[in-house]
């Protein structure tokens, strides 16, 4: 029988062995190694418990270090908190790449196991055909210009009935309402009237893949957005079967809604919670973005919201900034000397913790934790200049979210109409922040409990009919995304991904080449 003393001795021996082992495989030129209190598996437990917040928690304990190493036993994570090193990552886009994460996401989210199909998806540098990144490159044009206008028009038609219903319902769960509205509007905008997600019987990965397969077999894509038709065309031309492609397509739902739902919720929460700001923004929309049509309908003009409502736009960005836990992530493909100082070894992962970058004096410094609705205003009395690393909610170029214009339109239109037409108050009267759920697929703080509210129609608009107005080709949101210093060909190939992939990566081991 082992007694407590023997157990303690065993623990000390294991810990010593771990430190010696760690020390031997840590090059002194690598960023300083942060040892977990629990030997061997400490950082793995940390990630499982706190999710990606574990990196930030560790970096907070070493505020003087612009970069640290966390040993996960089978791989290392380099955690960056300085804007200079963030830019150094951008300059080394060829060796610090997002591309392998795309393959991992496609493989793990879709459940594709066929080797031939996986090889089609795998990046070229790793011996595959590079289909994942080819599809992603094509997503940027499919989510801008005329293709975006078409999606926006479909999306707003679907949002309106949800907004109308607010006047009828008594008490409802605001988060669930955001979820229903976003899923209905986003999926129909992408897939058209034969939307495979219309009927909720698709729940579950296999069922969803079957529903999508049937949708394609029935020709649903003939009335769909360019986003859907382009992805299908590229994949089939590259050698995918329709069955395998339907599995891959299941993952698109995550991109379409996983961040938009919580972002929409927080926008409503943060505005209704601040009555004075709410009134100012209502006035701004009323004065600049409300059209009264000849038939008496009141229409919210999306272009005017983007171009003539600076306070709403700045507030929107500030809400996204303060509510995100984004951490743009790259894989080290080849040994890389970052900023001539830190050795990043191939097979490991680099992650930039946006919350901590924002706290650096050269970014937002002491004001980073303060909600300032005018922070992103380009005009007006309280102008603040752009800061490198000040806004990482949509990623970091060359890997930025291709859906940001669509998501912004959806949230801004819905929020503008809801706040003009309704007063909303929480049941119990107090705006208490709900608890956040640890998420593998969302960086916008999805909540893990109900948030019950009551809505009442505002008297000044009694009896008015409402609609939206979208002008073609003028619907991109101007948002501060840190660009590369020089626009390289890589910039053209702007790519993006989801933090959940990092978890998938941990599960699979990072040594992917
Ligand atoms: C408020 C809403 C959204 C936020 C905050 C957001 C944020 C992000 C971020 C941070 C990334 C990763 C970039 C990186 O790692 O550097 C990303 C990737 C991506 N986003 Fe978004 N996004 C949103 C909405 C959307 C929408 C509506 C779509 C689709 C129409 C979309 C499609 C994608 C895609 C396809 C990727 C790449 C992931 C993949 O390859 O599967 N996103 N997004």
Q: Key terms for this structure?
A:
transmembrane helix; 513 residues; 47% helix; binds protoporphyrin IX containing FE; alpha+beta; disordered C terminus; Cytochrome p450; single chain; 6-stranded mixed beta sheet; heme binding; oxidoreductase
Helix content: 40-55%
Query: How do the strands line up in the largest sheet?
Result: 1-2-3-11-8-4
Binned strand content:
5-15%
Total count of domains:
1
| Mean pLDDT over the residues | 84
What's the total number of strands?
Answer: 16
> What is the makeup of the main sheet?
6 strands, mixed
* Poorly predicted sequence stretches spanning 5 or more consecutive residues: 5-17, 479-513
- The secondary structure category is alpha+beta
Please count the helical segments: 21
Keywords: ANK repeat, Heme, Iron, Membrane, Metal-binding, Oxidoreductase, Transmembrane, Transmembrane helix
Pfam families: p450
Transmembrane segments: 6-21, 33-52
Protein name: 25-hydroxycholesterol 7-alpha-hydroxylase
Structural description of this entry:
ANK repeats lie at residues 485-513. The chain crosses the membrane at residues 6-21, 33-52. Mean pLDDT is 84; it is low at 5-17 and 479-513. This protein has 21 helices and 16 strands. The protein is globular, with a radius of gyration of 24 Å. The strands form five sheets. It has a six-stranded mixed beta sheet, sandwiched between helices. α7 (131-142) runs antiparallel to α11. It is an alpha+beta fold. β12 and β13 form a beta hairpin. The longest helix has 21 residues, at 4-24. It has a single domain, classed as Orthogonal Bundle (Cytochrome p450). 47% of the residues lie in helices and 11% in strands. Bound molecules: protoporphyrin IX containing FE. Protoporphyrin IX containing FE (HEM) is lined by residues 102, 105, 136, 139, 143, 251, 255-256, 259-260, 263, 326, 328-329, 393-396, 399, 401-403, 406-407, 443-444, 496-498. Protoporphyrin IX containing FE is lined by residues 102, 105, 136, 139, 143, 251, 255-256, 259-260, 263, 326, 328-329, 393-396, 399, 401-403, 406-407, 443-444, 496-498.
């Amino acid at each position: 029988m082992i007694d407590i003393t023997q157990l303690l001795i065993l623990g000390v021996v294991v810990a010593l062995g771990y430190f010696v082992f760690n020390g031997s495989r840590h090059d002194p030129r690598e960023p300083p190694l942060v040892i977990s209190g629990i030997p061997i598996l400490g950082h793995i437990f940390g990630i499982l418990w706190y999710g990606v917040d574990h990196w930030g928690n560790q970096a907070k304990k070493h505020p003087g270090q612009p970069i640290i190493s966390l040993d996960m036993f089978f791989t290392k994570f380099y955690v960056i908190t300085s804007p200079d090193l963030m830019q150094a990552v951008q300059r080394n886009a060829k060796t610090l790449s997002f591309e392998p994460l795309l393959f991992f996401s496609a493989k793990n989210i879709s459940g594709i196991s066929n080797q031939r199909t996986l090889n089609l998806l795998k990046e070229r540098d790793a011996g595959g055909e590079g289909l994942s990144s080819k599809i992603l490159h094509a997503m940027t044009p499919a989510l801008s210009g005329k293709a975006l206008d078409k999606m926006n028009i479909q999306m707003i038609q679907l949002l309106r009935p949800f907004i109308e219903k607010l006047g009828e319902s008594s008490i409802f769960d605001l988060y669930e309402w955001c979820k229903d509205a976003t899923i209905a509007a986003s999926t129909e905008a992408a897939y058209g009237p034969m939307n495979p997600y219309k009927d909720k019987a698709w729940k579950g990965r296999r069922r969803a893949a079957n529903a999508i397969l049937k949708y394609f077999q029935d020709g649903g894509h003939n009335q769909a957005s360019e986003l859907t038709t382009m992805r299908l065309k590229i994949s089939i031309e590259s050698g995918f079967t329709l069955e395998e492609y339907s599995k891959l397509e299941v993952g698109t739902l995550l991109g379409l809604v996983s961040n938009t739902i919580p972002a929409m919720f927080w926008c409503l929460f943060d505005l209704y919670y601040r009555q004075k700001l709410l009134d100012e923004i209502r006035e701004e929309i009323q004065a600049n973005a409300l059209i009264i049509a000849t038939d008496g309908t009141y229409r919210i003009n999306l272009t005017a919201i983007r171009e003539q409502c600076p306070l709403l736009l700045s507030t929107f960005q500030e809400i996204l900034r303060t509510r995100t836990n984004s951490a743009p992530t790259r894989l080290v493909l080849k040994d890389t000397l970052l900023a001539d100082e830190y050795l990043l070894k191939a097979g490991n992962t680099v992650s930039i913790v946006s919350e901590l970058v924002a706290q650096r004096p050269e970014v937002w410094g002491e004001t980073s934790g303060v909600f300032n609705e005018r922070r992103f205003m380009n005009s007006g009395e309280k102008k603040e200049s752009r800061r490198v690393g000040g806004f990482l909610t949509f990623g970091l170029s060359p890997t930025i979210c291709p859906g940001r214009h669509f998501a912004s339109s959806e949230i801004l239109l819905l929020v503008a109409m809801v706040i003009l037409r309704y007063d909303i108050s929480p049941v119990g009267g107090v705006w208490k922040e709900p608890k956040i759920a640890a998420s593998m697929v969302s960086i916008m703080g999805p909540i893990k409990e109900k948030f019950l509210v009551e809505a009442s129609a505002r008297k000044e608009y009694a009896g008015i009919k409402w609609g939206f107005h979208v002008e073609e080709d003028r619907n991109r949101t101007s948002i501060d995304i840190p660009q590369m210093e020089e626009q390289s060909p890589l910039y053209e190939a702007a790519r993006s991904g989801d933090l959940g992939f990092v978890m998938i990566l941990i599960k699979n081991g990072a040594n992917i080449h």
